[in-house]
Amino acid sequence: MTRPIRFGVVTPVLTDLPSWRDQVRRIADSGFSTLLMPDVPDMQPAFAPTLALAAADTDLRVGTWVCASPLRTAKIAAWEAHSLSVLTEGRFELGIGAGRPGINDLAREFGMPALSPGERLDRIRDTVIALRELDGDDRHTPVAMAVRGPKAQALAAEFADTVTFVGTPDDTRGDIEGLARGFRADRDVELALHVSVVGDGVAPFMALPTIDTAALQAAGSLLTLPDDPSAATEEILRRRDELGFSYFVFGARFAETLAPVVAELAGR
């Protein structure tokens, strides 16, 4: 099944609130599907009230990209996700993952225990199960999972509506292609691609600012897109048609540059 293309944009609050709300409205007017928030405590407002505000201002879908499972109990994470689904009238998508490197240090600051990789996956599973119980029969809050290894992929194949593969700067194009081609699920699962670099620019909270953009481009990394709209359009179509990626997520700093791409490809 070839899915229509959609676009999400990670839009942290990096300015004063009126400027951020203006940015959100411009994004909504540009044809993006989903406004996404990273899970970065102490660096910006909490994602739940911020996403509720964005959903009230626009008709965008909203979501997390991605919620770190070690920072919350499964019940609390599920309650927040279900609440956002209700308050946005079904426009919330829960993105969830095991957390970036060093996440256990942050978890301890929150008074949470350090978790092993297996325990982090169990926390994700328990969160989705609790969310489904809260949603009941009349609601389905979509879940996007950020995965890498075989156990995480198996969990996503069972529970996720959307899957994105956790990439590293050392990954070759073939590494991510292999993950995409090797992913197997008995259901129709949307494949999403996290694009942290466009041209020579790096999106805040999507990759380290010190990342070697030239090396990524030279390697043809799937973490990147060209900043020329025509070239980006061709590359996105290639990634959808050859690898099955239909949901493309990049940073808000590139929203204006890639707006012509979104206008041409959204829903195609």
Topology:
Layout: E1 6-10, H1 17-29, E2 34-37, H2 47-57, E3 61-64, E4 67-68, H3 74-87, E5 92-97, H4 103-109, H5 117-135, E6 143-147, H6 150-159, E7 162-165, H7 173-182, E8 190-194, E9 197-198, E10 201-202, H8 213-218, E11 224-225, H9 229-243, E12 245-251, H10 259-265
How would you sum up this structure, described in words?
This protein is α/β, with parallel strands linked by helices. It has a single domain, classed as Luciferase-like domain (TIM Barrel, Alpha-Beta Barrel). It is built from 10 helices and 12 strands. The chain has helices at about 15-30, 45-55, 75-85, 105-110, 115-135, 150-160, 175-180, 215-220, 230-245, 260-265; strands at about 5-10, 35, 60-65, 65-70, 90-95, 145, 160-165, 190-195, 195-200, 200, 225, 245-250. An 8-stranded parallel β-barrel has the order 1-2-3-5-6-7-8-12, surrounded by 7 helices. Strand 7, helix 7 (about 175-180) and strand 8 form a beta-alpha-beta unit. It starts with 5 loop residues before the first strand and ends with a helix.
